[in-house]
Specification:
800 residues; mainly alpha; two-stranded parallel ribbon; two-stranded antiparallel ribbon; 4 strands; 71% helix
Length: 800
Amino acid sequence: VPAVLAARGTLGVAGLALMGDPTGVVAAGLGADQLARGLDWAWAVRTRIKDQGEAQLVLDPVGELTPVFVEDLTEVARDRRSVVVILDVWERIGPGVEEWVRDVVAGERYGELPLNVIVVMAGQSALTPGVWGEMAREVVQVSLEPFTEAEAGELLARHGVVEESVVATILRLTGGLPVLVDMLARARPTDPGQVGDPAETAVERFLAGQSDPARREAILACALPTEIDEDLYRAVLTDGRPEEDCGWLGNLPFVTADGGRYRYHQLVREQMLRLHRTRSPRRWRDLHTRLADHHAREREHLEVTLTDDGRRWGDDRWVAHHIAEVHHLLCADPHTALPVALAGSVWACARGPGTLRAWAAMLQQAGVENDHREALKWAERLISGSEEPERLVTVLGHLIAAVDLPSEVRVWAHLFRGWEHSRARDRVVASLDFDRAVELDPDNVWALASRGRTHRERGDHAAALADFGRAIELDPEYAWALAERGRTHHALGDHAAALVDFGRAIELDPEYAWALAERGRTHRALGDHAAALVDFGRAIELDPEYAWALAERGRTHHALGDHAAALVDFGRAIELDPEYAWALAERGRTHHALGDHAAALVDFGRAIELDPEYAWALASRGRTHRELGDHAAALVDFGRAIELDPEYAWALASRGRTHRELGDHAAALADYTRAVELNPKDGRWCHEVAVTYRVMGREQEARWWWEQALGKLAASVRAAGKDEAWWRSGVMLVYCARSEWQKSSAELRILQSLADGPAVLRRRLPDLDALPFEPGSSERLLVEFRESVRAVVEEHFPER
């Protein structure tokens, strides 16, 4: 049948000519010579074959023989479970028989096929939608994937090939392509050396039907890049290129087109690459060098605007060209290119798992394509680092130890490994890497600033300032070093110097959210809450998911008594980071200030669950328990906080108050005395000792301690700056305890005039309510004063 079908175009035309073609449609579609030959042939049939049936058979063999074919197929299928008709190499025969196959399957023209007859079209090209129409829905598309290892092993075993090394070699050479596995299996090799390379046979199969030598060579050359576009097409085919552009590649059955870019099927590409490399090593090197040069030019073009390594490695286009460039360099000359590949590996480690995976994949691909074991070894190491971030330190260690790593890159490897140690909070080891980086390159500002930050985190602020200073001296526009030095000044309490550094960093980079937020924190430390809110707001505007800035702004709102706004900010920060223990504890404090002790306990509890050694959260939960009357739970929390931090004066004083409320005055005095010893300048604890003595009925001792408290609190007011309202409220409490109502009223008026005075008075109400009145004085005056304070609070916070 196929031989007859191959001629059906000419025969069909001749048949129409015999019957006449008054429309001229057939003639319009044929050349004059072809039409003349058809008419001559048809006339010969009419005059020489007198039997009409025989003439029809000759003139329309397809129409005459197909029904007979269908009848015979029906007869064959009658006694069988199923009959499969396979039309192989469909990409070659399909154009000539597709419509005929459709008509046979449809059953309307030649008779219906039995249901147990299955027609299979096997090949590289898909069916033509315009031919099949609605019938396309009844066609099942089956993708023939390469053999799995188990499937290949089963086929090889049938041929007696079971030696593991032989099986592995066949799988490597064939990629699991069934026809190639079968071809090699038939030779029944018993040793890997007996396995022939099927690349040439495979490539000949792929190129069947390509007779143009230039096209055949172009197809092979275009397999070298992982994907090809017009620029790469012209770069790799500088000589002997087909006249047309690269669009014709998209018509190849093993090529996938995607918006002007073309990608070979991986199995096809592997066979072509191996043939290329073994057939002509020199041309292999030349073509890869051309491609590397092309990507180098594209990379250098981008470097006009990407002026430093950090920006380059952060640009996806630059990274893609660099990866492709190094891939082709490794294929062209792996020994020369390996140091370049290792240098890139260091930067890929710094860029993160995504870039590192891409770089490792490139090394693996180059190692496989060029059979270079060293590249494959490094690919395996990098892949482990990309999949398990904790192993990144190990990968960087391998790179640092590599003989082929350029010395100028080893500095960065130490720097990046130091950063990884810092992220893991292993600051001692991080310092060793930063020390080594500075030793290798004393003027590397990144290494200096990174070491400075580690010094600061370890509490060595003098060393930190020295490193930051040197880095800024070398690069006066190094915004990160300026901001880090500002943070160091803040830690030392030199807020003025901190503001200068933060300001300069922000001047250099107006969108530096972290520096803005840090400056906001410094403004708040100086009592300038308005400026703090501006900086936090700008930082959040630049980065709406900046949880730390949101939480810090929440804390500023809390300090100003705007608890509703504080809850909004804390809530958003926690939504962004549900395990943000500090934000949870701060929200707990805000709930506490609003009197919502139940919500406060929930937040404190969650913060402690996340950080069981969070002493402040423990002490704050203890205070909440105490205020709810659960003194036993309060003592447990205060005890744990003090166990974690034996010099935590506020926790000691809070436990002292709990003991006092339980009537254990001796224990209370012991805790208060210890708090005074730890912080002798803090008048608050002297006040609490005095209150305890008054409760015990020892008024003379109480008055002595209030005298001590008043002197210390007054000194704190003078030195307070931003905290003036807090310390002045302590002075007011002492005057109340001593029934000095004119002085206490004067302090109240001053507090009313301070920006954060009403918020502080709100916090002081529980202390004022718990204050015992002085024996022999008028309790009514103390009650009236309390009401005056409460009126001020309610005026500013009507929701209370």
